[in-house]
Amino acid sequence: MGSSEPLTGLTPEVPRPRALDVRWIHGSESAKHNTDPDIQVHAYDERTFILRQNMAVNYEAPFVFLLLGDARAVLIDTGATASAEFFPLRRVVDELIERRLGEHPRDGYELLVLHTHAHGDHVAGDAQFADRPGTVVVDAERSGAWEYFGFGDDLDQVVRVDLGGRVLECLASPGHHEAAVTFYDPHTGFLLTGDTVYPGRLYVQDWPAFGRTIDRLIAFAGARPVTHVLGCHIEMTNRPGVDYPIFTTYQPDEPPLQMTVDQLRDVRKAIDEVGDRPGRHVFADFVICRRDG
Q: Contact, 75 vs 65, CB < 8 A?
């Protein structure tokens, strides 16, 4: 499980920023004739992989993240489709891990499956890993996830998960979902924000909690070298303030997945502008959809 205590013997890493100039698969005009792979795999480096699900299989086309440490790997989220036939996530993950172990053999290498939150398009593939040897799948609901991390009433704590030579920092980040978790990877400088912040529609379940989470992420990022803020979807077009309609399966004019800490600050400004008004509020890089009153 996670540990909220500082880990000894570890040298803090200073991540080297790398470009993320990726042309992500983005669907096709005819889903029947779609030729995209079931899963697009982008190797950010030899131990870091960003995966996107085919939009013709599920319009959500979520991103999932595979990070390899020396002792175990972590898979963050499992996508929007349960069927291994249409969404072969376990096969792809196994191939990536086996390739790494072929180059750097290690006995007893494990896989940990964690989640940014418990919505269906982030947990559907969990069952593919249920019988995988050496694997722990942590339930995404608050009772399971937050117990694993050891989050209590003090939501200001930072919990560390050691992958062996690579230590993730994990923060409770409710607002979009009561069980939301944000992950920071010092190796890459990635701040993995799930559905809390991404270039799309930010659906807010708990408005006060969302504001506190954004404040906390800004403060957290101010004390660490963040190279990219990475959410799990792209829903905006490359025109400011224009998003693709829900259920869209062809998005040829997407902006980049990656966002910046300055854009986190833009979300904070947007929260202040929205104030007490529920509904849909459009901004250049995202849309805030406040569901509560």
A: yes
Strand order in the sheet with 39-45: 39-45, 48-53, 63-68, 72-76, 110-114, 135-137
What is the distance, to the nearest Å, from the Cα of residue 82 to the centroid of all Cα atoms in its chain? 18
Query: What pLDDT is attached to residue 32?
Result: 84
Confidence of residue 11 (pLDDT cuts 50, 70, 90): very low
Give the strand order in the sheet containing 287-290: 201-204, 287-290, 279-282
CA 239/CA 91 separation, integer angstroms: 36
- Dihedral of the CA atoms 133, 50, 202, 122 (nearest 10)? -20
Under 8 Å CB-to-CB from 215, ≥6 apart: which residues? Answer: 268
pLDDT, residue 123, reads: 98
